[in-house]
């Protein structure tokens, strides 16, 4: 079950704010009058907590809804760009400002460019896919109107093979050890948008091959770890309304939930591109 933190923060902000406001307008003046008459009247504990927590919760809600939101990378699908255990920040306004919880866009700001690494809500294979709505992270390779093809480990965009050059054998450390021995390639998506990908086999999975035309308002996304990524080749396109934001920096890497394992300090501050 996916926990909707934005909804939790919105509810807590509303409840604490309402408690504080009602007390300030209705009960606080009465307490002041009673105190002026010499009576000892303490502020209720609930009101005290609400008054202190409301600004904190509200600020966190605003920051993660409109500026930047943290995410943790749970899988190897974006290696070598992102490792398992990376904690990243996602720019929430690059593709437009959206209301929290409802995710309704209220201000247009821009749209994804080819090569952007984006977080989005997984659209799912269908209505019965209980993973639908889970936050995924992939790289945008196809824009609305593009013709995308993938066969023999080659990505084609509008009929043109995407250039890639061997960049050596990948040697991983820390949480990247699992992919040691894979072939690393530098891929050029055009306009200077170069990045590294990994391939374990010379031959692509036949089930991941095909040709697609990207509809208006949707995008084609792929993982950089080509043989270990379940992406648009498998489940289809990413609707524009599912976009969460653009990933831009790694701020921490550690092993295990709650960082119970080792830290990789070399990852801190890495720009995502």
Task: Write up this protein.
- It is a single chain.
- The mean pLDDT is 92.
- The longest helix has 32 residues.
- The strands form four sheets. A seven-stranded antiparallel β-sheet has the order 1-2-16-5-6-14-15. A four-stranded antiparallel β-sheet has the order 9-8-7-13, with no helix packed on it.
- It has three helices and 16 strands.
- With 273 residues, it is an alpha+beta fold.
- Helix 1 runs antiparallel to helix 2.
- The chain has two domains: 62 residues; 200 residues, Umud Fragment, subunit A (Ribbon).
- Strand 7 and strand 8 form a beta hairpin.
- 27% of the residues are buried.
The CATH C-level class name of the largest domain: Mainly Beta
Number of strand segments: 16
Order of strands side by side in the largest beta sheet? 1-2-16-5-6-14-15
CATH fold descriptor of the largest domain = Umud Fragment, subunit A
> So what's the overall shape?
elongated
The CATH architecture of the largest domain can be given as: Ribbon
Oligomer designation: single chain
Tell me the helix content.
10-25%
- Cα(first) to Cα(last) distance is 31 Å
Structural class: alpha+beta
| Total count of domains | 2
What are the secondary-structure elements, in order, as H or E? Answer: HHEEEEEEEEEEEEEEHEE
| Residue share in β-strands | 25-35%
CATH homolog superfamily of the largest domain:
Umud Fragment, subunit A
Radius of gyration: 24 Å
Low-confidence runs (pLDDT<50, min 5 residues)? none
* Main pleated-sheet profile: 7 strands, antiparallel
Total count of helical runs of at least 4 residues: 3
Task: Give the rounded overall mean pLDDT.
Answer: 92
């Amino acid at each position: 079950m996916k926990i909707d933190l934005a909804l939790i923060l919105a509810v807590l902000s509303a409840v604490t704010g309402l408690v504080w406001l009602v007390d300030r307008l209705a009960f606080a003046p009465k307490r002041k009058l009673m105190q002026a008459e010499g009576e000892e009247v303490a502020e209720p504990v609930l009101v005290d907590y609400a008054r202190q927590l409301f600004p904190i919760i509200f600020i966190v809600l605003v920051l993660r809804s409109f500026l930047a939101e943290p995410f943790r990378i749970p899988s190897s699908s974006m290696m070598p760009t992102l490792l398992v255990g990376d904690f990243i920040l996602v720019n929430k306004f690059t593709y437009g400002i959206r209301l929290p919880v409802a995710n309704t866009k209220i201000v247009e700001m821009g749209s994804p460019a080819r090569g952007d690494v984006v977080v989005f809500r997984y659209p799912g294979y269908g209505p019965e896919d209980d993973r639908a709505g889970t936050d995924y992270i992939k790289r945008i390779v196809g824009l609305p109107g593009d013709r995308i093809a993938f066969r023999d480990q080659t990505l084609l965009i509008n009929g043109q093979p995407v250039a890639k050059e061997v960049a050596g054998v990948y040697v991983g450390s820390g949480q990247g050890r699992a992919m040691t021995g894979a072939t690393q390639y530098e891929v050029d998506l055009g306009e200077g948008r170069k990045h590294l990908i990994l391939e374990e086999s010379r031959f692509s999975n036949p089930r991941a091959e095909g040709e697609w035309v990207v509809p208006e308002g949707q995008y084609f996304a792929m993982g950089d770890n080509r043989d270990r990524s379940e992406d648009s080749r498998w489940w289809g396109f990413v609707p524009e309304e599912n976009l969460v934001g653009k990933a831009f920096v790694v701020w921490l890497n550690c092993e295990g939930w709650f960082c119970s394992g080792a830290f990789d300090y070399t990852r801190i501050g890495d720009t995502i591109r």
